[in-house]
Amino acid sequence: MDGSELSDAYGWATARPRVITLSEDARPLWRIVRRYARILGETLPEAQAVFIERTAEQTLRVAACLAASECSETVTEEILSAAFTLVRRSVQDAVRITKGANAAKMKRQPLSLTEKVRARIELHGGQATSSQILPYVGATAEEVKALPGIVVTVDRSGKTGRPATVFTLPGDSSGDAVPKPASAEREENRAPVVRLDTYRPAAKQAKELVPANRPAVPVLASNPFRALL
User: Fold this and answer.
1) Buried b (16+ CB within 10 A) or exposed e, 13-38
2) CATH 3.30.420 intervals, the chain
C-alpha cells in the first residue's frame, strides 16, 4: 500500500460531517465489549482500573477509524472485532505494567561486616591481607581483628618492611603457609617425563626375542620412527 488509499479515505472523512454507526450484526459484540470493560473496572485495583476505565469508548473510536479508512459509515462486526482485539491487547499491557510498578519492592538487606570480610577472604583464595580487605569493607584493622570466626596471623616471611597481617577463615591452614613462587609451583605440578630407553630392552635381548627362522626386517634410513626403536 503506497498511502494513496489512506489519503483518499482521509479526504472522504473530512469532506463533510459524517455519522458512523454500528451495524446490526456488530451490536451483540458491542454489548460484550461494554460488559468486559465494566467487569475490569470493578475487579481491578483502583491504581490499575484508572488506566483502562474507558476501554469500551476506545474500542468504538478505533472501530470508527477503521471504518473511515474504508470510506464507510458503518462499523461491521468484523471491524469491531479487529478494534476490540487491539484495545484488549493494550489493556493487558497496561495491567501488566501497572502491576509491576505498584508491586512491593523487596528491600535488600545490607551485608554485615563479618559477611563482607568473609567474602573478601574467599575472593582471594582463603587468605587475604589488610590491604585486600580494609579498603573494601569500610572498617579498621582493629574492628576486623575483633570479628568472631576470623583467624588473624602475622606473616614475617618478608625480608624488608613491616610484617603483613593475614586474615583467614577457621579450618583454613593457608594462612600459615608461605606462598610458593609461580615457577616452583609449575615445577611441582609438571607431569613426570618418562624416557623411552628406560623400558627399551638391551640390544642382545632384542635379538633373542626375534625367532631364528624369521627374517630380519631391514631398517630404512628414511624411516621417521627409527629414533624410537
Assistant:
1) beeeeeebebbeebeebbeebeebbe
2) 113-176
